[in-house]
From TrEMBL:
Keyword field: Flavoprotein, Oxidoreductase
Full protein name: FAD-dependent oxidoreductase 2 FAD binding domain-containing protein
SUPFAM superfamilies according to UniProt: FAD/NAD(P)-binding domain, Succinate dehydrogenase/fumarate reductase flavoprotein C-terminal domain, Succinate dehydrogenase/fumarate reductase flavoprotein, catalytic domain
InterPro entries from the UniProt entry: FAD-dep_OxRdtase_2_FAD-bd (IPR003953), FAD/NAD-bd_sf (IPR036188), Fum_R/Succ_DH_flav-like_C_sf (IPR037099), Fum_Rdtase/Succ_DH_flav-like_C (IPR015939), SdhA/FrdA/AprA (IPR030664), Succ_DH/fumarate_Rdtase_cat_sf (IPR027477)
Cited Pfam families: FAD_binding_2, Succ_DH_flav_C
GO MF entry, a single one: oxidoreductase activity
Domain Fumarate reductase/succinate dehydrogenase flavoprotein-like C-terminal: start-end pairs: 307-370
All copies of domain FAD-dependent oxidoreductase 2 FAD-binding, residue ranges: 2-250
Species, as recorded: marine sediment metagenome
Sequence intervals crossing the membrane: none
Length: 370
């Protein structure tokens, strides 16, 4: 994002809508018309008319409680696309990164294993020898994550908080010089968030929800079935990754499909001599009412608590290993939670930085995608 921001400074003809929340994508007669947005700084609700749209809003792993995602990555773009009638696919393909820091979920990068870190169970064994003797700790992410959960489920993990039993990644044998030279950020994270110095102590880790292979259905150029709309990065699904991507391919995907989708959208916009017709007035009024009048201050449901229930369900029933009965239990629970959304209590009735309303909207988006 810093690089994107820096690059945008070169162009006087680019408008950034900082601190604005896009609430809906408007499609009429199969073609893009624009988006509705809410300016959190002023409270204004407005239409951005457009010839072309690129959806690049990332995934939705915040539906899980234990995830490497930032708190803001709640699948809003995917949920808006879904509600606008765009097909989404392959959302069941979620990558679990083998080394999320317990209990926060902060990513302990692949480099920790690439530089020679050991994965250890509670018997001090390098257990990857049983599962991938040739590759050991640097086996593909899905193999390492499955191996870790097997160790935990068979009782060879350490007891952790809120059911987050864990294993260790051990860097001690690398020595202080190598850790400080090659893995300084890992050391800083461990010290800041867990008060552990990996020069002297192993780091507690377990698999964390990390990446959505699925997203808005696109063709090989990132075009969606709606005229004038493309999707790129984690939000799009051109089926590049199959069921589980390789490490570093998310960055490659952003670079390649950012370029392809951006070029295609720009060419399309340039070929359109005029802006598309304005959406109907009733469409805009409905979108504004859906945003600001949907939830009552007298509702019985707490959006924050409901999101926690969703995350607990996803962590326990829809993790690395999944079974039919567990998925059915999770689906029934999600349907029950979805029924309760209409009764969300939003006590803040203002429009300026209404984080109470934002949280309710994000919980609703996560439930749609879950």
């Amino acid at each position: 994002m810093q690089t994107l921001y820096d690059t945008l400074q070169k162009y006087a003809n680019v408008t950034r809508y900082d601190e604005c929340y896009v609430s809906s994508i408007l499609i009429e007669d199969g073609s893009f018309r624009g988006v509705t947005a809410w300016d959190l700084t002023s409270g204004e609700f407005f239409l951005i008319q457009g010839k072309a749209l690129v959806i690049a809003t990332g995934g939705a792993c915040r539906m899980f409680g234990f995830t490497t995602y930032s708190l803001t990555a709640t699948g809003d773009g995917l949920a808006m696309a879904y509600r606008a009638g765009l097909p989404i696919k392959d959302l069941e393909f979620v990558q679990f990164h083998p080394t999320g820091l317990v209990p926060s979920g902060i990513l302990i990068t692949e480099a920790a294993r690439g530089e020679g870190g050991y994965l250890l169970n509670n018997q001090d064994e390098r257990f990857m020898e049983k599962y991938a003797p040739a590759k050991m700790e640097v086996a593909p992410r899905d193999i390492v994550s499955r191996s870790e959960i097997t160790e935990i489920e068979e009782g060879r993990g350490f007891s952790g908080p809120d059911g987050l039993d864990y294993l260790h990644i051990d860097l001690r044998h690398l020595g202080a010089d190598k850790i400080n030279e090659r893995l300084p950020m890992i050391r800083e994270i461990a010290m800041r968030f867990n008060f552990i110095d990996p020069i002297y102590q192993p780091i507690p880790i377990r698999p964390a929800a990390h990446y959505f292979m699925g997203g808005v259905h696109t063709d090989i150029d990132g075009a969606t079935p709606a005229e004038g709309i493309w999707a790129a990065g984690e939000a799009g699904c051109e089926s590049l990754h199959g069921a589980n991507r390789l490490g570093a391919n998310s960055t490659a995907e952003c670079l390649v499909w950012g370029r392809i989708a951006g070029d295609e959208a720009a060419k399309y916009a340039s070929s359109q001599k005029t802006l598309p017709p304005l959406p109907k007035e009733s469409t805009l009024k409905d979108a504004e009412a859906q945003l600001f009048s949907r939830f009552s201050p007298d509702g019985k449901e707490n959006a924050y608590a409901l999101r926690k229930e969703l995350q607990k369900t996803m962590d326990s029933q829809v993790g690395v290993f999944r079974t039919g009965p567990e998925l059915e239990t999770a689906l029934n629970k999600i349907k029950e939670l979805k029924q309760r959304v209409s009764d969300f209590r939003v006590t803040d009735r203002g429009r300026i930085y209404n984080t109470d309303l934002l949280s309710a909207l994000e919980a609703d988006n996560l439930l749609d995608l879950a």
